Amino acid sequence: MQSETPVNSPSLIHNGVLCHAPEARVAVTDRAIRWGQGVFETLAAYDGRPFLTESHLKRLRQAAGMLDLHCPCDTILIEAMDLVLQSSGLDVAGRSRLRITLTSPTESQSNPPSGPPESWFIEASPLPNHPERAAVITIPFVRNDRSALTGLKTINYGENVIALKLAAEAGADEALFGNTRDLLCEGTWSNIFVYHEGTYLTPPLSSGCLPGVTRALVLDLCRDLGITVREVDFPMRRLAEIEGAFLTSSLREIQVISSLDGRPLNDPPGVALIRDAYRTQVERYCHGSST
């Protein structure tokens, strides 16, 4: 890995080279710009240690394969994440954000020209501030659960931008999508767990939701805690009946929903235990053993 940027300057890794962020370029011929042919992953880092790295890189590699994108090996990506955290001075921050993006240049843009087309970026930044509790709304748009992109974390985020604009205009923090069958799917940047009739429910992957890394961890933690969670379809119309809910994502961690479409919700039972178990996993993974 090459270093060309002074420590603490705004920086990112572009194709293995540390550079000033304004110097990084994607050509207009890149298929990410022309056709949206790109994928990404967002990780949280704690004191400079990325969390659940293996799961994120596995999902990145699967998405890259579906879109015929070149993805560097895990060792290269892990070294690059460490370097960009250090160069940005975020290796000692309590929590920070990492984003890995793969785009799709033409052969003529390849470096070296005879090798596979390669265009990848890793950025590090302070973790965005998320409130402990989120006001959430439902929106009239739907996720296409039969799309060729279902389950892939692609850069095609236009509909999320519109959804978040609607949420902001309504004074909310997040928006929920149903799918083409009017079943609960996910948030714009999150998965959802609802508490209904004494049980936690979360949409199955067949709903079209992203297979969230944090979602998967929370499912495991609930089983370890003896908290029943069912992966089942849940009609959007029945959201008016839920007693509580929380969102999950790498950056939100576990975020209780305070209100849904203006209706106040209670903190669901056991959510404090789930959050504590999550933080224990962070401590073990980032500051001790990863078992």
How much β-strand is present in the residues? Answer: 25-35%
Tally of alpha and pi helices: 6
Measured as a percent range, the helix fraction is: 25-40%
Structural class: alpha+beta
Radius of gyration from the CA trace? 20 Å
**Which shape, going by the Cα principal axes?**
globular
CATH topology of the largest domain: D-amino Acid Aminotransferase, Chain A, domain 2
Provide the domain count.
2
Instruction: Please provide the ordered H/E string of secondary-structure elements.
Output: EEEHEEHHEEEHEEEEHEEEEH
The total beta strand count reads: 16
Mean pLDDT: 91
* Intertermini distance: 29 Å
If classified by CATH, what would the architecture of the largest domain be?
Alpha-Beta Barrel
Describe this structure as you would to a colleague.
It is built from 6 helices and 16 strands. With 291 residues, the protein is α+β, with helices and mostly antiparallel strands. It folds into 2 domains: 125 residues, Aminotransferase class 4, branched-chain amino acid transferase, N-terminal domain (D-amino Acid Aminotransferase, Chain A, domain 1); 154 residues, D-amino Acid Aminotransferase, Chain A, domain 2. Strands 8, 9, 10, 11, 12, 13, 14, 15 and 16 form a 9-stranded mixed sheet that branches. Helix 5 crosses helix 6.
